[in-house]
Design brief:
Layout lengths: L3 E2 L9 H8 L3 E4 L2 E12 L12 H9 L5 E6 L3 E9 L3 E13 L1 H8 L11 H8 L16 E5 L1 H11 L6 E4 L5 E4 L2
Antiparallel strand pairs: 1-7, 2-3, 2-7, 3-6, 4-5, 5-6, 8-9
Length: 185
């Protein structure tokens, strides 16, 4: 089944809605990809954890970019972070926190210098390193190029939710400082 690329209209909604609905989608990055298993929402207005709270450059980023643009920044001088811009009634960002690797796993292992597939993309800095995401991807339109995009594969999405929603591994969607899906097996 062919993946259906997520268009900019998806990101013209509330950041929390987008954050929830990206769970189970595929992040495609060149010859690598993975299913999104953890995200985090930031509201551009009055959210002290959002870069817009203290950084005029981030507010300018929102003004000059369309919904679906990559917001990539260097965190703590150590790791690149991939966010996607959301511009609906409320603007903000979705931080991609973790992936379940699907394609290009050997390349990801080489980039991370790691053999443990479960740890390849188990954090926002780990997944950007595994995918090779850096500042050169900042402001990239993630809704225009299939090679760098989000996509829904209906069969993968169905399988993800069915296996996550079993009686033994019911997903927990939580809202607070972090918005996440936690699966216990």
């Amino acid at each position: 089944m062919v993946n259906k690329i997520i268009r900019a209209s998806f990101f013209k909604r509330d950041p929390i809605v987008c954050t929830r609905e990206l769970i189970g989608a595929e992040l495609i990055w060149g010859d690598c990809s993975g299913v999104i298993v953890e995200t985090e929402a930031y509201n551009a207005k009055d959210d002290e954890a959002c870069h817009t709270f203290m950084r005029p450059s981030t507010r300018a980023f929102i003004e000059r970019n369309k919904a679906g643009a990559a917001y990539v920044y260097f965190n703590y001088g150590m790791h690149w972070m991939l966010n996607v811009l959301v511009k609906g009634e409320e603007s903000g960002f979705v931080l991609i926190r973790a992936l379940e690797p699907r394609k290009g796993i050997e390349r990801m292992k080489k980039r991370r210098r790691l053999d443990d597939e479960k740890r390849l993309c188990s954090g926002p800095g780990k997944l950007t390193q595994a995918l090779g995401i850096t500042d050169r991807h900042h402001e990239m339109d993630l809704c225009a190029d299939r090679r760098h995009s989000f996509a829904f594969n209906q069969m993968d999405l169905l399988t993800f939710w069915l296996t996550s929603a079993s009686a033994l591994a019911a997903p927990r969607i939580c809202r607070g400082v972090l918005l996440c899906v936690e699966v216990h097996s």
